[in-house]
Amino acid sequence: MDASRYTYLGPEGTFTEAALRTLPEAATRVLVPAVSVPAALDAVRRREADAAMVPMENSVEGSVPVTLDELATGEPLMIVREVFLPISFALMARPGTTLADVKSVTGHPHAQPQVRRWLAANLPDAVWESAASNADGARQVRDGRFDAAFAGEFAAAQYGLAVLERDVRDVESAVTRFVLVGRPSRPPAPTGADRTSLVAYLKADHPGALLEMLQEFAVRGVNMTRIESRPTGDRLGRYFFSIDCDGHVSEARIAEAMMGLHRVCPEVRFLGSYPRAAFPGAATVVTDAPRPGTTEADFAAAATWLTRCLDGSF
């Protein structure tokens, strides 16, 4: 295996590729497109690639279910980086096509909610068909399956298409979060502005089961930035929770919250602690500011006090 290979949701010309190319190290890696998120992650599991860039969530449509599910199951993987990418679509078609000619449109399923109002106003009768990715939709337009596709404008030249409309988006501030995923290893060193991702399974469905999980974070002053339930797939009513929170596993408040989860959940999967990315338009990332009583110094002082109690030296 070429140790410098990174894979991503392809084909060439996806927003995922654009996100990957924002990383400085991408210039020194062989970048290999994959046909799907599972294929990209499985390439890492099989050691055919060192890491995979995949979409995690969009500010308009929410999380990408296939990514959440793939990270929650199978051979463990770990997130090492994240990237925020502003999203703006171009409507592209084969040369000579006009807007009036467009009867079918394609794109990734997450693209449609981001252009729904534009479609209603400009192509109300066009039939939408989902593609594996936006670039895959552009490829299918090139091959004659659909009339037009929504994708990043950079994909038009890649597939020999003409741009009919530029900067199409219902929400001006739309952003997609992508994550770089590798095999389990020591997490990157804490930066003071980090994110930790976890998957936790409920032990039993009973009143207060979710509250028990949430309290492990709340009592330690850990800010949860995302929590979502996903079906385990074995039967109705069984769920796991995909969680993001501010902080690093090396910090006492995060470590103790994770240990607390481990006590009350039958399974907890650590998905990594990694630097938070700067939000588009922000000059820097806001550093974590633990509330009083939950700083590293507070936890150290509490441990020292307990040791003195055990020694009888208080």
From TrEMBL:
Pathway in which this enzyme or protein is active: Amino-acid biosynthesis; L-phenylalanine biosynthesis; phenylpyruvate from prephenate: step 1/1
One Pfam family in the UniProt entry: ACT
Gene3D superfamilies from the UniProt entry: 3.30.70.260, Periplasmic binding protein-like II (3.40.190.10)
UniProt keyword Lyase, yes or no: yes
Ranges that cross the membrane: none
Molecular-function GO term, any one: prephenate dehydratase activity
Essential for prephenate dehydratase activity (site feature) positions: 176
Record has Amino-acid biosynthesis as a keyword: yes
Single Gene Ontology BP annotation: L-phenylalanine biosynthetic process
Catalytic activity: prephenate + H(+) = 3-phenylpyruvate + CO2 + H2O
Keywords (A to Z) from UniProt: Amino-acid biosynthesis, Aromatic amino acid biosynthesis, Lyase, Phenylalanine biosynthesis
EC number, as in UniProt: 4.2.1.51
Boundaries of every Prephenate dehydratase domain copy: 5-183
A GO cellular component entry from the record: cytoplasm
Ranges for domain ACT: 198-275
InterPro entries associated with the record: ACT-like_dom_sf, ACT_dom, Chor_mutase/pphenate_deHydtase, Preph_deHydtase, Preph_deHydtase_CS
PANTHER family given in the database record: PREPHENATE DEHYDRATASE P PROTEIN, PREPHENATE DEHYDRATASE-RELATED
NCBIfam families, sorted: PRK11898.1
Protein's UniProt name: Prephenate dehydratase
Lineage per the UniProt record: Bacteria, Bacillati, Actinomycetota, Actinomycetes, Kitasatosporales
